[in-house]
Specification:
alpha/beta; 12 helices
């Protein structure tokens, strides 16, 4: 079954887009079919995938507002070898337009159901705010991957996001769950980093990924070349970390599927 994950955090600058692009490329490296959905009007995930957002004729905006079928808007990331449903500044207008459309919170869900069978993983890069676009992502996904820095304000932002996820579960998507919490820009030499990390483990247990994404110059440089770090510098610590994260996600899914298959046998 296709796994759909929203990469979300209401706090900006925590590595959402970096994680989305590099996780997509890392999953492709493990022979998975991947679609990256850019749901941020800044279009950074689009650009980071090597797709020029200013040259696009059709984007996710056209799909959400019924101007074009999703198949016409997909592009290939030549660098990352995954498909992209791209975005640019046009997406800002979609928020206003969607308010007057029917089924406004589930428009992305309807779109992704049309193409889900073509992919093993669909990753949605969310904007850094709780708006109609983020609501669409949370209504369409199976789980949320939350990138966060290990600092005090990040904990406050996480608390707000948890409240949002609880509301979405009640109203739009009862299957929604926290897939994992990803510690980004991680520096183990910092005592605050270790304190926050310990609090995360205390409150969320094994939902905190064992993989941490370190501060890494190559990781920061790669987007300016329109490349995932796996292409830009495969031997860098950043590339190794995202490959490790992809492996951890795949192992978790295998374990969950094995557990699900055992349950009916026990009941029988």
């Amino acid at each position: 079954m296709t796994k759909i994950y929203a990469i979300a955090n209401q706090k900006g600058g925590v590595g959402k887009t970096t994680s989305c692009v590099n996780l997509a490329a890392s999953l492709v490296a493990t022979k998975k079919r991947v679609l990256l959905v850019d749901l941020d009007p800044q279009g950074n995930a689009t650009m980071g995938s090597g797709v020029n957002k200013s040259e696009l004729d059709q984007t996710v905006y056209d799909v959400l507002t019924d101007r074009a079928p999703v198949a016409d808007c997909l592009v290939v990331s030549e660098e990352g070898k995954y498909h992209v449903l791209p975005a640019n500044g046009d997406l800002t207008a979609a928020e206003v337009e969607m308010l007057s459309l029917s089924n406004k919170e589930r428009r992305l869900d309807v779109v992704l159901k049309q193409v889900a069978g073509q992919y093993d993983y669909i990753l949605i890069d969310c904007p850094p705010s709780l708006n109609m676009l983020t609501l669409n992502a949370l209504a369409a996904c199976h789980g949320v991957i939350i990138p966060m820095q290990c600092e005090y304000y990040a904990l406050e932002g996480l608390s707000a996001l948890m409240g949002t996820i609880g509301q979405i579960q009640q109203v739009l998507n009862p299957e929604l769950k926290i897939e994992g919490i990803l510690r980004t820009m991680y520096d183990p030499r910092n005592s605050l980093t270790n304190d926050v990390s310990a609090q995360l483990h205390e409150h969320f247990g094994d939902r905190v990924y064992r993989t941490c994404i370190p501060r890494n110059v190559r990781l920061a440089e790669a987007p300016s070349y329109g490349q995932p770090v796996l292409v830009y510098d495969r031997q860098s610590k950043g590339a190794m970390a995202y490959l490790a994260l992809a492996g951890e996600i795949l192992r978790r899914n295998d374990q969950n599927e094995a557990a699900d298959s055992i349950q009916p046998e026990i009941a029988h």
